[in-house]
Amino acid sequence: MNSEKITSEVLANVIVAAIKEKKGEKITKLDMRKADGSICDYFVICQADNQRQVLAIADEIDDYVRENASEKPLHIQGKENAEWVLLDYVTVVVHVFLDKSREFYRLESLWADAERTDYPDEILGK
């Protein structure tokens, strides 16, 4: 990939693709550009059933984005307990939740004024 910095929208879409690779569930992208008090352009939020998958999704995002967008996170937080892992790409902040933690924190409701895109879960043979 060339050395030009990609847009935050393209980065958010690359992150969504990475999450889909590891079967992340209930993927939501919030466009924060018009939201009051926003610290970034996009939030990407997803969840997993167990801590191992939370870590696998976070690792996949890191690897996939480095490979496909030549970006690396400024900061990664939460891998110690793997209930909520945050990857900060400055313009895009990613939240990978354990399902019960996502339900508890309900980030989407805090940013109700943001434009929201929900991605359907892949059919997993359930």
Describe this structure in words.
There is one protein chain. The protein has helices spanning 8-21, 51-69, 99-105, 107-110, and strands spanning 25-31, 42-48, 75-77, 84-88, 92-98, 115-119. The chain has 126 residues and is an alpha+beta fold. Strand 3 (75-77) and strand 4 form a beta hairpin. The termini are far apart. The mean pLDDT is 93.
Question: Would you summarize the structure shown here?
Answer:
This protein is α+β, with helices and mostly antiparallel strands. The chain has helices at residues 8-21, 51-69, 99-105, 107-110, and strands at residues 25-31, 42-48, 75-77, 84-88, 92-98, 115-119.
**Individual helix count:** 4
Helical/strand content category: alpha+beta
Overall shape: it is globular
Average pLDDT score: 93
The largest β sheet comes out as: 6 strands, mixed
Low-confidence stretches: none
Helix and strand topology:
Layout: H1 8-21, E1 25-31, E2 42-48, H2 51-69, E3 75-77, E4 84-88, E5 92-98, H3 99-105, H4 107-110, E6 115-119
Parallel strand pairs: 2-5
Antiparallel strand pairs: 1-2, 1-6, 3-4, 4-5
Helix pairs in contact: 1-2
